Amino acid sequence: MEGGDNKENTLIDQKASSVVLPLILPCFYPELFMLYMLYHEREDDLYCQGIVDLSLFPDIKLLEFLDVQK
């Protein structure tokens, strides 16, 4: 296995865990879920702020910003 494949697998594993953990932790381990949420709080705040910023664009400007072709 090459080094690039290993990095790609690690990235896929990280993406999978970021989807799965918030779904299963509250049911089985509420304390771990709280720690997970606190650990990722800054990222969540930045993501939400980005969504708010994008929502301020008019439709045409947003399409231009996202480089959507007509």
UniProtKB/TrEMBL annotation:
InterPro entries: Alsin, VPS9_dom_sf. It comes from Willisornis vidua (Xingu scale-backed antbird). Keywords: Membrane, Transmembrane, Transmembrane helix. The chain crosses the membrane at residues 20-39. The keyword Protein transport does not apply. This is Maturase K.
